[in-house]
Amino acid sequence: MKSIHMKYGNEKIEVSVDEDNLIQIIESNPFNLGKNENEVILDSLANPIGTPRLKDIVAKGEKICIVISDITRAWQRPYKFLPLIVEELNKSGISDKDITFLCAAGTHRNQTEKEHGLLLGPELSKRFKVIDHDCLDKNNLVYLGDTSYGTPVWINKIAMECDHIIITGAIVYHLLAGWAGGKKSILPGISGYESIMANHALSLGENIGDGSNPLVRSGYIENNPVHKDMLEAASFVKPSFMFNVIMGSDGNIAAAVSGNYIEAHKEGRELVNKIDGVKIHEKADLVIASAGGYPKDINLYQSSKTMINMNEAAKEGATLILISQCREGLGGDSDIKDIILNYDNILDREKSLRERYSISKFIGYYVCEMAEKYDFIMVSDIDQSLVKNANIKVVSTIDEALNIVYKKRGENLKTILMPKGANTLPILQD
Predict the structure, then answer these.
(1) What's the maximum distance between 2 C-alpha atoms anywhere in the chain?
(2) Contact 228, 149 (CB under 8 A)
(3) Where would I find the Lactate racemase C-terminal domain in this sequence (predicted)?
(4) How is 231-258 classified by DSSP, letter by letter?
C-alpha cells in the first residue's frame, strides 16, 4: 500500500491505496531561482520583456494609474512589490501626487481601509489612498467600443484619464481565462458590470443544452473565447507596463515577469507550467484530491478550484473523491446556493445561468456539471442536504469513501492522488 497525508481543514488525514493501482501522485515541481523575493522583483523590473524599463517609459509630470488586485488576492504579497514599483517611478521624476492606486475589484465588494493597508504595506499606506473600482458606477466608466465577440468595453474613467496604466498581480491557472494575471486586471478588473457578464458568458456553449464550453478551461488559451475577448478588451486600453508575480509552493514570490502585458504574460505562463503544471501520461479511474486544507477548503465555492483540476486527471465516468472540510458550507453568495439547492437537473440549472449569468452561479453550475459527469464523493463536514440535489455523496472519512467506491466498481482502479489539488494542474501528454 502507498500512504500519503492530505490536508483537511487544519488537520491531515492519511490516504492509502494499492501501489499497483497508483498511476501518479501529482505535486508541484521543484523551482528555485536562488534569489530572495526582493531580488526576484528588482531583477524583473530591471529586465522587462518587450518594453523599455518602467523608468524610461514615464516622464515627470505624467499621471500614473497603478492597478492592483483586491484583498481576495492578498496572497500575491503586493506589499512586497508595490513599494519597489513606486520607487522606480519616483526615481524617474514621478511625484506621489501623480500616482493613483486603483483596486481591480471586478464585481467584488469595496475594500476596507485596513484591507487597503494590507495590500499596500505600512509605508505606502501612509502616502497613498486606494480607490476601489465600482463596476456598477456608470458615471465613472467610459465606453471604448465592442470587441469582435460583442462585448461592450466599459472601463474605469480614472484609469483612462491617466497617461500610463500599470497593471499588477499574479499569474496562476484560472478556470475561465486559462491563466490569471495580465489582461485580467483590465477585464474584469476595472471594467463595467455589463462588460464582465458578456465576457464571462462565453464560458457556456453556444446553445442551451451544450453546458460549459470545453474550450474554456484552466491552462488553455489557444481557442479560449474568454481569454481572447479579455485580450481584445485590454488592447483598447493599451496598458503601458505589467508586473506579475508567480508564487512558489511555499507561498512566497518565486518569480516575476514585467514589461509588455502580452509578451511578459506569455513568459509567466511558462513559469507557472514549470511549477504547477504536472505531466501525466494517462487519466485515472479514481482521482482523490485534497483542496489543500484551510482556508482553501473553507467552503465548496473555494473547493471548486480543486474540482476543476481533478477534471483534467479523470477518465470519462471516473470516480472523484474530494477531501474538503467546508466548515462554512457552500460559501459564495445567494447565487451558488440557488443554483445548487433549487434545481434537480442540469438543464434547468443551465437555463437559469443563461438567463442571468454571474460567476457565483457559474461555479454552482460547474460543481453540479462535474457531479453529473462523474461519480462524485466528498469527505467533508458539509451538510449532505446542501449538495443532495447536486448528486454529491458526503461521507465522514476517506475509508468510508473508498469502501463505497470499491464495492461499486471493484478495487482494481487506476488511481491518481492530488494532495494539493487547488494548485496543481494535470497536463496530459500525447
Answers:
(1) 72
(2) yes
(3) 282-422
(4) HHHHHHH--SEEEEEEE-TTSSEEEEEE
At 214 the pLDDT is 93
pTM over 0.85, yes/no = yes
331 DSSP assignment? -
Q: Which residues pair with 255 in a beta bridge?
A: 246
3-class DSSP string for 7-48: EECCEEEEEEECHHHEEEECCCCCCCCCCCHHHHHHHHHHCC
The angle at the Cα of 335, spanning 343 to 393, to the nearest 5 degrees, equals 50
Which pLDDT does position 83 carry in this prediction?
Answer: 97
- The ranges of the chain with pLDDT < 50 are none
Rg of the Cα atoms in the chain: 22
Tell which CATH architecture fits domain 37-275.
Answer: 3-Layer(aba) Sandwich (3.40)
Contact (Cβ atoms closer than 8 angstroms) between residue 278 and residue 29: yes
Nearest to residue 285, comparing CAs of 198, 394, 405?
Answer: 405
Pick the CATH number of 2-28+281-428 from 3.40.50.2000, 3.40.50.1370, 3.90.226.30, 3.30.1370.100: 3.90.226.30
In the Cβ-directed half-sphere of 292, how many Cα atoms lie within 13 Å? Answer: 21
The residues, any chain, with a CB within 8 Å of residue 301's CB and separated by 6 or more, are: 330, 331, 332, 336, 360, 363
The Cα–Cα gap between 312 and 429 comes to 11
Q: Quote the pLDDT of residue 125.
A: 93
Q: What is the DSSP letter of 298?
A: S
Q: How many CA atoms lie within 13 A of 132 on its CB side?
A: 17
β-strand partners of 290: 323
